[in-house]
Amino acid sequence: MVTQVKAGDVRIFTDYPAQTYARNTVEVRGRVDGYIDKWLFRPGQEVHSGDVLYVLDLRPYQASVEQAKGNLSQSEADLEFARKQVALLQAEANLAAAQANLVKAQQDYERLAPLVKDDAAAQQELDAAVAALRAGEANVRANQANVDQTRLSTQTQISSSAGKVDAQRAALKTAALNLDYATIHAPISGLIGDTLVPVGGLVTANAQQPLTTIVPLDPIWVRFKVTEALYLSLRKNPTPLHSDLTLILADNSEFPSRGHIENTLNQVDPKTGTLEMQASFPNPQRTLLPGQFGKVRLESDVRHNALLVPQRAIQQLQSIQTVYVVNAQSQVELRQITSGDRVGEDWIVDKGLQPGDRVIVEGQLKVRPGMTVSAVPYRPGN
Questions:
Q1: How far apart are CA 214 and CA 230, in angstroms?
Q2: What is d(CA 37, CA 33) in angstroms, rounded to the nearest whole number?
Q3: Of the residues 9, 94, 240, 298, which has the maximum number of CB atoms within 10 A of its CB?
Q4: What is the distance between the alpha carbons of residues 355 and 309, in angstroms, rounded to a whole number?
């Protein structure tokens, strides 16, 4: 059985050992202190962002909220009282009364002064009127100073009360936030691990150990390493970096989803001469888990006018590779070849064959160079 060699474009794929991992794994931690009252998930369960995972003892935080509400109400009442400016209104009323008395004393003085001059009134009455006028002026000045002082004090009280209201509102928000933190939600969607703190256990905000972890599985990430030579080749021709990747699992099956290279690390490992690449694969069924091993199949090159020969047609003795060819006279010839990359079940032949040559795939053990044979086309699977 023979196959006719044809030239064509061949995509070269290379397999690289790979391992799956989860990017953006989240450690679930408590933001406030408290004892776990409820545990609301099962280890290994798929959780969604916002799901309730733990509920701490809420009573201390509910009490703090009620206390903050009471303090805020008291501060708001003090602010409202300060804004009414009762003391200032009273001081202004006293000033108005003193000013009225001063006007009356001024009028009495102005009425008595000409009478005393004409000896129509006693000097004693004028002296009393002058004293009353001076006392009225002093009283007006005193009440004016009291008004100014009360106005300043009132403004200070209003500002102080407003500041207390703002502080109490902030305290209420903090208490409400702490109450909300006492119910611990899933920050992301993914597969959740086991709880590390049981019901009744103490949660602290500064604990080194997390409560549990959540691993996002869709997409799943895969890391693999390529040689420095391939990296340099990809720098010259980055097209393969944008092609689909195939993931070969540990049982040699192909993962149904195709992936893409997302990241390339920034340095070559000097010990191995390799560079790590990171790819993502859609994993909607959550089939893959972090830590699994497999192989990533990457298109590393495209060979133009390449000659493909089935691997089973090639015979190798030490470093020499040969094939049997049936010539135009139906006679067997032995050809020495040089093979290149492997493509599936075929090898690329770099030297030793020409397009149109008929290579024996089955029956090599029955022929010798120079024999005349009857050749039939080889069909894979026969």
A1: 36
A2: 12
A3: 298
A4: 11
Radius of gyration of the chain (CA): 48
Q: How far apart are CA 221 and CA 217, in angstroms?
A: 8
- 49 forms beta bridges with none
Using CB atoms within 10 A of its CB, is residue 239 exposed (0-12), middle (13-18) or buried (19+)? exposed
- Helices 86-117 and 123-181, interaxial angle, to 10°? 170
Of 177, 203, 183, 185, which Cα lies nearest the Cα of 64? 177
pLDDT tens readout for residues 248-274: 999 989 999 999 988 888 888 888 888
Cβ neighbours around 63 below 10 Å, total: 12
* pLDDT of 310 above 90: no
Helix 123-181 / helix 59-84 crossing angle, nearest 10 deg: 160
**Lookup: tokens for 203:** 């949660």
Tell me the C-alpha distance between 41 and 55, whole Å: 11
Which residues fall within 8 angstroms of residue 102, CB to CB, at 6 or more apart? Answer: 133, 136, 137, 139, 140
Q: What is the pLDDT of residues 141-171, one digit of tens each?
A: 888 888 888 778 778 877 888 888 899 999 9
Q: 259: burial class by Cβ within 10 Å (0-12, 13-18, 19+)?
A: buried
d(CA 171, CA 181): 15
Contacts of 296 (CB under 8 A, 6+ apart): 15, 16, 18, 222, 224, 245, 246, 247, 248, 259, 279
Q: Where are the alpha helices (DSSP H) in 182-275?
A: 228-236
Identify the residue whose tokens are 């019901």: 199
Q: Return d(Cα 170, Cα 158) in angstroms, integer.
A: 18
d(CA 38, CA 184): 10
Q: Look-up: residue for tokens 């002296």?
A: 127
The Cα–Cα gap between 166 and 156 comes to: 15
The secondary element (H helix, E strand) that includes residue 38 is strand 34-39
Contact 347, 340 (CB under 8 A): yes
